[in-house]
Design goal:
The protein is α/β, with parallel strands linked by helices. The protein contains 15 helices and 21 strands. Belongs to the class-I pyridine nucleotide-disulfide oxidoreductase family.
Length: 491
C-alpha cells in the first residue's frame, strides 16, 4: 500500500509561541490557519501525517479521480456517434495512475510549500492539548516540543472509520476507505460492508474497474436520502453486476489463501471475497488529543456557530470540521473553517466580542449558519445524486408544512440532448406557508453541476414567485426548474 510517512522538516521559526495553534493540517485546518493569518495572526499548524489530510490523499480527490474514467466512458456510450467511436474497455492501470497523480504520489511537498507561501508555520508530529492554550507535539524522533498559543487553539483532526464489533474482523485486516482508494492492483472480488455514501461510491469504482462486488447492507442503500435516490442507485449498481445482501456480518475470517469468509445469519450462506472493505460510517477523531485534560468530554463536545467549544474556561478552544460532528463533509468543514479563522482573528483584534455569552450573528462572516438545514452534498455514483437542505422526511419531522413536488428529469429537452435515453428525477420539498424550497434532490447523469443553483435558492430562501422569474436557458437540463414550478402551480 502507499507510504503515508510525512517528511521530517518543520517550517517554523525559532519561537514556540504563536497567536493560534491549529492541530491537524487537512483541508479544514489549512483553511482555519489561512483565514486567521489573513486576519493578522501568527499561526502554527501541527500535523502527524501528510499536510493536506484525508481529502487530498485517501478520500475526496482519489475517489473522484477513480470514478471519473467510468463516468466519461458511460457519457460517450450514451450519445449516438460518440458511442460508435468508443471501443475496448477501461485501461485499469491508466485509471490508477491518473488517481496517483492527484495524490502527488502521497507526497505533501507541494502542500508544505503552500503553507510557507501563506505564512503559516508547520510543526511535524502528534499534537496533544496539555493545558490552557498549551500543546505538546511528539516528534518523529520521540522528542516533545512545547507550544503555546496567546489567543486560541483549533482542533481540526477530522474523523476516522467506524469499525463494527464483528468477531474476527481486526484479525482479518479489513480495508477501509484509505486502502480502497490507494489500491495498486484491483482484487478479483470485494465484499463491502455498509450502505452509505462511501459504500456506494466504492461499489461503483470497484465494479467499473473489473472486481466482483458484494454489498452487505442492513436496510436500504443510501437510507438517509430520498427514496428516488436510493432506489435509482441500487437499481443501477445491480444492473452493473453488484450483488446486494441484506444482513449483518457475525464473523470474519481470513484463510491461509488470503481470502476472507464472512458469516451472516444461521440460514444465510457465507460470503467469500479476496478483500473486505468496511464502510459503516466515520466518527470524530478525538482519541489522545487531550480534550479531557481541559474539561471536555469528547462525546459531549459542543460548539457554537463560530466553532468555539462550550464549557472551556477562557473560551480559547475551537473544534472545526468532522471532529465536531455537525456535517462530515469536506466542503462544510472548510466553510466552518472560514468562519472560525475569521472569528478567532476578530476576537484577537477586539472587533468581535470574546464574552462566553456572545454569539456571532447568523449569516455573518463568523457563523457557519448553513450547517443546520442548508447542507449541499453529492454522491458520485451512477447515477449521480445531488442534494441540498432537508429531505421530505426531515422537513416533516421538523414541523414544517410540506408539499413534495417531483418531476421526471428525463422529460426535459436539455436532458435528451445531453444523453440518449436520459433518465433522472428531481424532487423539491416546499414550505407551503413561506412559499420557499426547504430541500432539493437531483438524480441523474451530471446532476452535480445543477446543485449550486438549488443551494442558492435554499440558502437564500428565494420565494417560488421570485423563482418564476429566474428563466432557465433552453435547451438545458435546468429547464426542470420551470417544470417544477408549473407542477406546483397547476397540479
Amino acid at each position: 500500500m502507499t507510504d503515508t510517512t510525512a517528511g521530517p522538516t518543520d517550517t517554523t521559526s525559532d519561537t514556540d509561541t504563536w497567536d493560534l495553534i491549529v492541530i491537524g493540517a487537512g483541508a479544514v485546518g489549512e483553511n482555519v490557519a489561512d483565514y486567521a493569518t489573513k486576519g493578522g495572526l501568527r499561526v502554527a499548524i501541527v500535523e502527524a501525517e501528510l499536510v493536506g489530510g484525508e481529502c487530498s490523499y485517501w478520500a475526496c480527490m482519489p475517489s473522484k479521480a477513480l470514478l471519473r474514467s467510468s463516468t466519461v466512458l458511460l457519457a460517450a456510450q450514451r450519445v449516438a456517434g460518440a458511442s460508435a467511436a468508443v471501443t475496448g474497455e477501461l485501461d485499469v492501470a491508466a485509471v490508477l495512475e491518473r488517481r496517483t497523480s492527484f495524490t502527488s504520489e502521497w507526497n505533501d511537498a507541494s502542500q508544505v510549500e503552500w503553507l510557507q507561501g501563506a505564512g503559516i508555520d508547520l510543526v511535524r508530529g502528534w499534537g496533544r492539548i496539555v493545558g490552557d492554550r498549551r500543546v505538546d507535539v511528539t516528534q518523529a524522533d520521540g522528542t516533545v516540543r512545547h507550544l503555546t498559543a496567546t489567543h486560541a487553539v483549533a482542533v481540526c483532526t477530522g474523523s476516522v472509520p467506524t469499525m463494527p464489533p464483528i468477531d474476527g474482523l481486526a484479525e482479518a485486516k479489513p480495508w477501509t476507505s484509505r486502502e480502497a482508494t490507494s489500491v495498486t492492483e484491483m482484487p478479483g472480488s470485494v465484499a463491502i460492508v455498509g450502505g452509505g455514501v462511501v459504500a456506494s461510491e466504492l461499489a461503483t469504482i470497484y465494479r467499473s474497474l473489473g472486481s466482483e462486488v458484494t454489498v452487505i447492507i442492513r436496510s436500504r442503500l443510501l437510507g438517509t436520502l430520498e427514496d428516488i435516490a436510493s432506489e435509482a442507485v441500487q437499481s443501477s449498481l445491480t444492473e452493473s453486476g453488484v450483488r446486494f445482501v441484506t444482513g449483518s456480518p457475525s464473523s470474519v475470517t481470513r484463510g491461509d489463501d488470503g481470502r476472507v469468509t464472512i458469516a451472516l445469519g444461521e440460514d444465510d450462506a457465507p460470503i467469500e471475497a479476496d478483500e473486505i472493505i468496511i464502510a459503516t460510517g466515520r466518527h470524530p477523531a478525538t482519541s489522545d488529543i487531550g480534550l479531557e485534560d481541559v474539561g471536555v468530554t469528547p462525546k459531549d463536545l459542543h460548539v457554537d456557530d463560530s466553532m468555539r467549544v462550550s464549557g472551556v474556561h477562557g473560551d480559547w478552544l475551537y473544534a472545526v470540521g468532522d471532529i465536531n460532528g455537525r456535517a462530515l463533509l469536506t466542503h462544510q468543514g472548510k466553510y466552518q473553517a472560514r468562519a472560525a479563522g475569521l472569528a478567532i482573528a476578530a476576537r484577537a483584534a477586539g472587533t468581535l466580542s470574546s464574552a462566553p455569552s456572545a454569539r456571532p450573528e447568523p449569516w455573518s462572516d463568523y457563523a457557519a449558519t448553513a450547517d443546520h438545514e442548508h447542507v449541499p452534498s453529492v454522491v458520485f455514483t451512477e447515477p449521480e445524486v445531488a442534494t441540498v437542505g432537508l429531505t421530505s422526511t426531515a422537513a416533516t419531522e421538523a414541523g414544517y408544512p410540506v408539499r413534495v413536488v417531483d418531476y421526471d428529469l428525463g422529460a426535459i429537452a436539455g436532458s435528451a440532448v445531453h444523453a440518449d435515453g436520459y433518465t433522472g428525477a428531481v424532487r423539491a420539498v416546499i414550505d407551503t406557508e413561506r412559499r420557499i424550497i426547504l430541500g432539493m434532490t437531483f438524480v441523474g447523469q451530471d446532476v452535480s453541476e445543477m446543485l449550486h443553483a438549488a443551494t442558492i435558492a435554499v440558502v437564500g430562501e428565494v420565494t417560488l414567485e421570485k423563482l418564476w422569474h429566474a428563466v432557465p436557458a433552453y435547451p438545458t437540463m435546468n429547464e426542470v426548474w420551470l417544470r417544477l414550478l408549473e407542477t406546483e402551480r397547476y397540479s
